[in-house]
Amino acid sequence: TTLMKEKLVVFLAGLQYIAVQIINTSGCFKSFLLANCSIMYLFLLFLADGPSIQQVLVELTNQRTVPNVFVNGTHIGGCDATYQAYHDGSLQKLLGDSKDAETYDYDLIIIGGGSGGLACSKEAAGFGKKVLVLDYVVPTPLGTSWGLGGTCVNVGCIPKKLMHQAALLGQALQDSRKYGWQYEEQVKHNWETMVEAIQNYIGSLNWGYRVSLREKSVTYLNSYGEFVEPHKIKATNRKGQVTYHTAETFVLATGERPRYPGIPGDKEYCITSDDLFSLPYCPGKTLVVGASYVALECAGFLAGLGMDVTVMVRSILLRGFDQEMAERIGAYMETHGVKFIKKFVPVQVEQLEEGMPGRLKVTAKSTGGEPEIFEEEYNTVLLAIGRDACTRNIGLETIGVKINEKNGKVPVNDEEQTNVPYVYAIGDILEGKLELTPVAIQAGKLLSKYEFLFTPLEYGSCGLSEEKAIEGYGKQNLEVYHSLFWPLEWTVAGRDNNTCYGKIICNKHDNNRVIGFHVLGPNAGEVTQGFAAAIKCGLTKELLDETIGIHPTCAEVR
Amino acid sequence: MATLWRRRERLLGVSGRLCRTVRALSGKNEYDLLVIGGGSGGLACAKEAAQFGRKVAVLDYVEPSPQGTKWGLGGTCVNVGCIPKKLMHQAALLGSALKDAQHYGWNIAQPVHHTWSVMAQAVQNYVKSLNWGHRVQLQDKKVKYFNMKGSFSDPHTIRGLTKGGKETIVTAENIVIATGGRPKYPTHIAGALAYGITSDDLFWLKESPGKTLVVGASYVSLECAGFLTGIGLDTTVMMRSIPLRGFDQQMASLVTEHMECYGTKFLKRCFPTKVEKLESNKLQVTWKNTDLGTEETDCFDTVMWAVGRAPDVKTLNLDAVGVKTNSETGKIIVDASEATSVPHIYAIGDITEGRPELTPTAIAAGKLLARRLFGQSSELMDYDNVPTTVFTPLEYGCVGLSEEAAVQCYGSDNIEVYHAYYKPLEFTVAERDATQCYIKMVCLREREQRILGLHFIGPNAGEVIQGFALGIKCGATYPQLMKTVGIHPTCAEEITKLHITKRSGLDATVTGC
Predict the structure, then answer these.
(1) Is B488 a catalytic residue?
(2) How do residues A241-297 score in pLDDT, each as one tens digit?
(3) C-alpha angle B307-B313-B319 in degrees, rounded to nearest 5
(4) Count of CA atoms in the C-beta half-sphere (13 A) of B153
(5) Is residue B328 part of a domain?
(6) Is residue B38 domain-shared with residue B168, that is, in the same domain?
(7) Gene3D superfamilies from the entry (chain A) (predicted)?
(8) Among A140-144, A266-270, B507-511, which is the least confidently predicted range?
(9) How far is B112 from chain A (nearest CA, A)?
């Protein structure tokens, strides 16, 4: 009977594999048990008084079979009953009851209702935890704000891909005539129609997230969260009303917001990607500042929708990406009407005329060589020079969570735990691990890294860039295979020959294992996904060859 | 030019005869390899062999279709198969794009028309450029090309016959038969041959086929009916039994279900009994409806048979050399090294018994054969896990086993099927129905959960399935696929997120991001 005071007691017939089986059959069950308690297994066969215990068990529970499971003295039953109890949550409840978690309002508070935060909250709630999500969108300097779901849904992947799709359809319209479709020459794009359709869809997603949180019994507050003392957060809503909440564990998932360069006129007159996707008027002649993927993607679809677009770049395109691919992306955009001003940065933006859009005058200076000044008028200036983590105004210093002072990112260990044990961080605010040493590269840590761009010619990659591969393995140990290709659909449409491009990088000393895959062409994302899976399964060049026949047009490393 | 060609042929004729004499004297054959049939497989094999410095010749000859359609070098895929089909499918997709575009803010003044002749001209021009490309490639690789019909006169000798009836004798050490297949006509339906066309004619029509009846439930039938519907033609598919036999039947039903929503009409469990030509030039088709036991009739501008394909072996005179064929299918029986019953005679591609009728497999088989013959390779063609895509309006891509085949091989208790109904992001704004967008993955149920088959219905299915096919070839397991991070937002990422098993009976509809 004293045993019954133990948290979880499992009586077994003495064969350990049964215990292992119980726990291993369900992965989440296992992690749940490990996280919650130490388990006492009693192997009846090995106990001197085993038979008498078994007798007592039968009397107590009317159950002859093992395993026989008790939690805090409460009889659960055999294997099936334990599962049942786990799945309906009663097991968690029994185990949880013994904890002194009562002192906190919540088991878990998540700051930030983006992709990561929402997924985490729902998963935790699934384990029977009491969860609060705080989400609050600080409006942009121009007053744009949005609903639940974070960057991806509101001002990132989703609207971006839809606008990219709108631009692709513009291309499809041109193609369609070659394929026999006939209609009036004059085709115009209506920005407002597109934005309304996209915003309606996003609105439905925002609503869907609200509903799914409610269904999972996650509490949601549309308030700004800030730590005021350990385990305690202050939440301020739109009206300025303040509430306080405590929790045992916290997850930071505040994400990032676009950076402003800090030049005269930037916040007053320029927009960022946070404003673009819901812009109520057509941006007209646009200057995109920056060489990030956001800059190139936005410039790409704006040009595709018929806008006069110029991209102003400080130095190289797409830093950190495979540079050969980056240059090809830039070259393709240039041949499709996007202008590039290289080695210039804006120093001032002035308003010449208000309006929707208005008229702005941009002054820029050269970044190298002879100092040069560039001046031009635009309707819209879109800043896409980078993004900053939203970690500076949430009271992290109050509870001692360390951030990288330079970029605001949060360093974490492998369990995504910050230096303060009860605070975790996920998503875009994590300190990047891009600065990998060659050794780490070889260890394959980057192999699951993808890049994917919805530039007019889509780009997908998996694994290492050529530069990183050379750094990690040495040029002489690599074989790079590449090929230009002409998608069948483009032939009849009379679209560019010799633009679509594929490249794979193989390690010569590991059976020609593929360590980098890069493709530039239509549907690159769809194409890359499967290859990513294949690379994970140890894809080699030989196998690739037999299946799709990328010919080695360049047998030696360039 | 014409005279030049004729002169050359005559010269060749002479040299051919000379050759036979030479061979009779020295016992040496003129060529190391002779390929009969200049399609995907044959050309790949010939070019690969030439890479090894061997003396290679290709014989290619297109017997005009019963309606008189003929084409150039390159075989079925290039001329009357994958290439023109995918281009016409693209034309249909662009028709959908025109509709989508309006939701995305493009103002297009109605009406929108499709003109067959513009499309056909563009497609045919492209195909002709490929014909020319193949000629040039053969020349570059120093492969001798004969535009002749070949038949065996002895195990090392082929008698080539030009269109004009001129004969040339070619001898070779090794011979590869790669003459492919041609569409079948039904044999007992009055008017079928006289008034009907097949896929051999469709892609070369100069004028629109108009209101069309497509008979058959093969992928050829559904693909053609799909694009005809897509470019705005009144299209009906008549099928006697199940669609896409051999494919996963749940997927096949979704494909036809989507086509019905898309506007293709279906006459199910019906078979035609006669085709008559009316004075109006319309074709009146009479059929039996086996459900109702009634006889029905309707008029069409075009009737296309897509009731299967048959190998073209008759003219080869195989009996003379003892190459064995399957008496039922007429296809040539080969072993794992593509050798026929006569050791130095090989066969690849659609003409071989039990092999997939697919271009990439024929190409790979041809190349590997050439490498084994001349390149000291011993690698055999792996016919397992060959991915394929059906280019119906909503595309269907698959690799590996169908659910039925998996159940048959392993038993339903030993397989786990993960599935999901998903909505492609582009469909949302375009207000397109995604009811049939569906993914299914068939795995072994035991701990490792090796993937046996993957099935995907949705846009760009071919592009999506290709990489996964590689993964499956590498022995991918369900847990491995789940560890692959998704590329967001794509359709392919849904495959990496599959988690609902059929066994669970839970709703497999994907919601949210």
Answers:
(1) yes
(2) 999 999 999 999 999 999 999 999 999 999 999 999 999 999 999 999 999 999 999
(3) 140
(4) 15
(5) yes
(6) yes
(7) 3.30.390.30, FAD/NAD(P)-binding domain, Glutaredoxin
(8) B507-511
(9) 5
Comparing CB atoms, the residue among B115, B364, B464 nearest residue A530 is: B464
d(CA A515, CA A506): 6
| ipTM, 2 dp | 0.88
Do the chains contact at A489 and B495, CB–CB below 8 Å?
no
Q: Can you read off the two tokens belonging to residue A27? A: 């992965």
Which residue out of A25, A492, A543 would a mutagenesis test of the B interface target, given it has the greatest number of B Cβ atoms within 10 Å?
A492
CB-based contacts of A59, cutoff 8 Å, min separation 6: none
Top residue of B490, B495, B507, B509 to mutate, by most chain A CBs within 10 Å, is: B490
Which positions ≥6 away from A325 have C-beta within 8 Å?
A318, A459, A461, A465, A501, A503, A518, A520
- Domain range for B255 is 192-308
Do B301 and B332 lie in a common domain? no
A56-97 pLDDT, tens digit per residue, is 777 777 777 767 777 766 777 777 777 777 666 666 666 654
Assign residue B369 the CATH number of its domain.
3.50.50.60
pTM comes to: 0.84
Can you tell me the distance from the alpha carbon of B67 to that of B199, in angstroms, rounded to the nearest whole number?
11
In angstroms, how far apart are the furthest CA atoms of chain A? 95
CA distance B155 to B173: 9
Q: How far apart, in whole angstroms, are the C-alpha atoms of residue A138 and residue A224?
A: 8
Q: SS3 helix, strand, coil % of chain A, rounded to 5? A: 35, 25, 35
> Using only C-alpha atoms, what is the Rg of chain A?
29
Q: Which residue has the higher pLDDT, A173 or A415?
A: A173
User: B290-333, pLDDT tens digit by residue?
Assistant: 999 999 999 999 999 999 999 978 899 999 999 999 999 999 99
Q: Is residue B23 part of a domain?
A: no
- By the 8 A CB rule, do A547 and A537 touch? no
Q: Are A363 and A264 in contact (CB under 8 A)?
A: no
- Pair (B360, B316) in one structural domain: yes
Q: What is the pLDDT of residue B484?
A: 80
Q: Which residues of B are annotated as a binding site?
A: 86, 150, 216-223, 308, 350
Cβ atoms of B441 and B495 within 8 Å: the answer is: yes
